[in-house]
Amino acid sequence: MAQVADESKAMASEVFMSKYRNVKSIGKGSFGEAVLVRSKTDGKRYVVKAIESASMTSKEKRDVQNEIRILSAVNHPNIIRYHEHFEDGTLIFIIMEYADGGDLNSRIKEAKKQDPIRPFEPKLVMFWFLQICMALKYLHDNHILHRDMKTANIFLTSRNVVKLGDFGISTVLQNTLACAKTVCGTPYYFSPSYARTGHTTIKAMCGHLVSFSMSC
């Protein structure tokens, strides 16, 4: 299991401290602690994922490099933007865009406390849904499967702009008909075909999206 870098150790990195100021911890992603930071260069806020690679397996190291490769390659308004990455000893830092509205999972939980019957206006849900569809279409047009579509990996800005993130287990396929044959992700959000066979295609990912939409 990949080890989340101890925040105090990560923030004590000379390379990191020369570039960023720590603001606060905001959660954990697939492979690391997510910390809100401010750039000493441009003054903007970013999220840094700090990962301790010393005890990683070779597969986990490949998954981290895979996330970096995909993040740095994609460019879409509804996908978290990659800023940079660097290493300091055994620590790997991935710097990404900050979505100041939190994640959709937390947003749903908070809204249901206020109104369990109708937590959101249908127009808002449709607005989010369409943005998620556009992000997925972009990924699928580029032969990328996210493979862990869930509300915790969908981030929002304060203006309700969707930002799809956490590409730790994504797969790049050779073509849109190719099939990923390893089972991974979050079972609650599996499409029926994926739950039954464990094989994923672009078409099957549409089932994941339907499962997601029902959670709202």
Explain the overall architecture.
The protein is α+β, with helices and mostly antiparallel strands. The chain is 36% helix and 23% strand. The protein is globular. It starts with a strand and ends with a helix. Strands 1, 2, 3, 4, 5 and 6 form a six-stranded antiparallel sheet that branches. Strands 7-10 form a two-stranded antiparallel sheet. A hairpin with a 2-residue loop joins strand 5 (82-88) and strand 6 (91-97). The longest helix is centred in the middle third of the chain and has 20 residues, at 122-141. The protein is built from seven helices and ten strands. The protein has helices spanning 7-11, 14-19, 58-73, 104-114, 122-141, 192-197, 202-215, and strands at 3-4, 20-28, 33-39, 45-52, 82-88, 91-97, 144-145, 154-156, 162-164, 171-172. The protein folds into two domains: 7-97, Phosphorylase Kinase, domain 1; 102-214, Transferase(Phosphotransferase), domain 1 (Orthogonal Bundle), CATH 1.10.510. Mean pLDDT is 78; it is low at 169-186. Pfam families: Pkinase. It comes from Trypanosoma cruzi. Belongs to the protein kinase superfamily. NEK Ser/Thr protein kinase family. NIMA subfamily. This is non-specific serine/threonine protein kinase. Keywords: ATP-binding, Kinase, Nucleotide-binding, Serine/threonine-protein kinase, Transferase.
